[in-house]
Amino acid sequence: MPAPSRPTGVRDTRRQGAIVPIMGSLRNPPRASLVAVATLLAGLALPSCRPSERRPSERQGSAGSPPTTDVSRSTPSRDPGAAGPTSRSVSQGESVAAPEKAGREAPGPLAPPEPRPGGYVGSQACAGCHAAISESFAAHPMGRSMDSVPPERQIEKSLEGGFRDRERDYRVEVSGGEVVHHERALDADGNEIYDQGMPVRFAVGSGTRGRSYLIEHDGLLFQSPIGWFTAADAYGLSPGYQNDRSLRFERRIGDGCLHCHAGLVEHAGEGSDRYSDRVFSEASIGCERCHGPGARHVDAMTSAAAGGGKPLDSCIVNPKDLEPRKREAVCNQCHLGGEATVPRFGRGFYDFRPGDHLDDTLLVFVQDEKAWAASGDKPVSQVEQMRQSGCWKGTGGTIGCTSCHDPHAKPRPEEKEAFYRAKCNACHAERPCTLPESERLAAPSGDSCVACHMPSQSLREVAHTAMTDHSVPRRPGETADRPPASAAADLVAFDDAAERVPPRELERARGIALASRPASRRSTRAAVEAVRAIVPRGIDVPDTAGIVRALAGDPEALRGLGRLFSQTGRVDAAACWEEALRARPDDGEALSLLSNLLQRAGRLPESLAILDRLLGSHGWMAADHAQRGALLV
Fold first, then answer.
1. Are 491 and 510 a contacting pair, CB within 8 Å?
2. Which residues touch 65 (CB under 8 Å, ≥6 apart)?
3. Would you state the pLDDT for residue 432?
4. Contact at 8 Å (CB) between 519 and 488?
5. d(Cα 20, Cα 464) in Å, to the nearest integer?
6. Which candidate, 620, 625, 629, places its Cα nearest to that of 251?
């Protein structure tokens, strides 16, 4: 099943196949959380960002950008002999921003990285020379990861059906060539309150475990609350909706969800989070996801064939020729679970290229191994489980996904046991299973290595689904369990990323990951830890203007910091939202939270103006219309 939307720039990867939103709605955060976080952050003296503290371009608004909104009610005062501005906080009490230390240059914005190599040609360009592999891969789950609706490959027993969940009815019907998903609510007497029907455009998932469905609005994608579960052979609530049905047909799906289910998205423009009319230039996962862009390879092979020879360089990546960490990065870009995945500054989820280290593009944060050891639990991510297995440790980390899995073909059901037994015996032939043959052949294992040493584990967050235990326990029953609750200090970058990634980028990504977790709403320690990670070293936390200058051009960091600040009800968040909007003027999250912050500050006309701007580009979001109605009452 695909992943529900995360805040832009963050993917929750701990629950593979069901990336449940963990921030929830910040429009009405729990009062206890606000009080707890505000109590500690109030001591940090976070001043509002006023026009006089900004650069001239910030006061006037850069060319092509909408003017910013000053939410401060206070008037800045400057002492001609002072090193920095003083300010009056809008929250209780007064605070003075710390002056800049003499001789210390404040950190500036991060430099944008070089563009990633392009040259994608699509899997159809590979089929001419690699017909057999192309045909088998088309039947592989990766080759069937995305479909149009009505689907070309129907796995549902019927396109029509339905179910009931508490007071709501859900049904799927075909009307006028479209597949329409309905949510209908009834009152206590069974009378209809509403019936909302939405046409579905895409089906996500090969059907191995199930499918989710996407709705398209003006270049943006949203998940339907209705999903298909293969094991149950029935429709049901999509993952994450069991405990939160408030988003209904409005759960955003972006690149963080799509990049593991779609071959290549096509954006409406440079830097836009909207998609083109066709949305995908290649719908399902294709050849270039694992082998890299193919244009140079096609040109090299075509030129060589015309000359009657072979090229010196095939200009394509074969993962089997890569050293183990880079080889595994090809698989880990999608199959590595963790707490969160954050693209590096200036990178997106589709910027990974085979042959890179994963952390050249994506930083995956996982639980510290010490935390797992202290809890006695095991990680639920298959990659992390494999790192704990005797197989991985016994080979010095050289064993990998393709040691056991064929990425181009999936064995037929009747071949699976023999196929994987042969993979095990490639290493264990000289030390075979010690059980008597009669016990090995007995049900339910039936001489299956996998049945005993890689048992299925139910995914608690995704109904009707299970995945195999890749820790390969020596004895049956030693299965992985739910991960322990983690503290901020337990969150570390996967593998040896800390040895390669500059400290500022590593802390930036860690802060964004922390800001997206529920602990940052519940724990003052976690919230402050996230703030300190996002704010570049060398800048005092109270120096909002300095922070905004240093994070200019980094909307992901600004959004994360804005979320943390907004939880306290302080207007410091406004400066973050405004700077994020300079980079992306139609950022729906920034507009919504800025409007809400202004409303809480009693600035109703400004709040309404921002909300109208939001509705001009995101006019179908029910919660935003409800907020506008509340402002007009």
1. yes
2. 581, 582, 585
3. 81
4. yes
5. 16
6. 620
